[in-house]
Specification:
- There is one protein chain.
- The chain is mainly β.
- It has a four-stranded antiparallel beta sheet with strand order 5-4-3-6, covered by helices on one side. A three-stranded mixed beta sheet has the order 2-1-7, with no helix packed on it.
- The model is unreliable at 1-44 (pLDDT under 50).
- It has helices spanning 4-11, 109-112, and strands at residues 22-23, 29-30, 65-77, 85-93, 99-105, 121-125, 130-131.
Length: 144
């Protein structure tokens, strides 16, 4: 398991690009991380005042950064082929205790699997948000 500090440093500048999190009317969100891993030579400093809390996420704004801790992590297998991994599912929590459901889809698992561990603190920068319409919700948030 990667040490907490090492995981935080390696994940500090995750930058999802195209398909990002999907947020439901109840606030349940799924993240599809699509980013390049940060290079070791890049600066790891982050301006703390630019962090957006989960309760303040807005589907019409795509220029923000969230700082979260992975409090629960599990794998979702393909329905038609239980030998294949479909996604990595997570519950993320911000510093105020707000929680959100997130996932990394199959094509992005090789890039992010080593960074994602229960207890890891990560920054996710500039994700795209859309409504999540599934009836199955793991987290009941109040934001839209």
């Amino acid at each position: 398991m990667i040490a907490m500090e090492e995981a935080r440093e390696r994940a500090r500048k995750l930058s999802p690009t195209k398909q990002g999190p999907r947020i439901s009317d109840s606030g349940a969100m799924k993240w599809s991380l699509e980013a390049e891993l940060p290079e070791a030579s890049q600066s790891r400093t982050m301006d703390e005042k630019n962090i957006t809390l989960i309760d303040n996420l807005d589907i019409q704004i795509d220029d923000f950064t969230v700082k979260v801790r992975i409090i629960r992590l599990w794998s979702q297998l393909l329905f038609k082929d239980p030998e294949q991994l479909y996604s990595i599912e997570m519950i993320l929590m911000d510093e105020e205790g707000s929680k959100i459901h997130a996932n990394v889809l199959q094509k992005w698992i090789p890039k992010f699997k080593k960074l994602l561990h229960e207890g890891a603190a990560i920054f996710i920068k500039n994700p795209t948000i859309a409504r999540h319409v599934s009836k199955y919700k793991l987290i009941d948030n109040t934001n839209n």
